[in-house]
Amino acid sequence: MAITIELPLDVEELLRTVWPNLSRRALEAVALEGYRDGALSRGKVAELLGLTFSESESLLKRHELHSDYGSGELQRDLDLIKRLPLP
Length: 87
Known about the structure:
Elements lengths: L8 H10 L3 H15 L5 H8 L3 H10 L8 H13 L4
Helix pairs in contact: 2-3, 3-4
């Protein structure tokens, strides 16, 4: 799904001087806000942004969004691992 955000040209130009890849920064902002609101898990943030586990942890830490890896998330991860095919 594509989402389009319309910005005034002068605002876009200003933002691109700070963030050359404005589309990526916008996607990160959506992912971070989704995590902050509890709509997205850390795993979904990583998936959405194409990051590894440690990269997503670093991103969350840089934005002072420390992960709250609770027992529910651990159980979901363990269940997922159990369903993975063995080599």
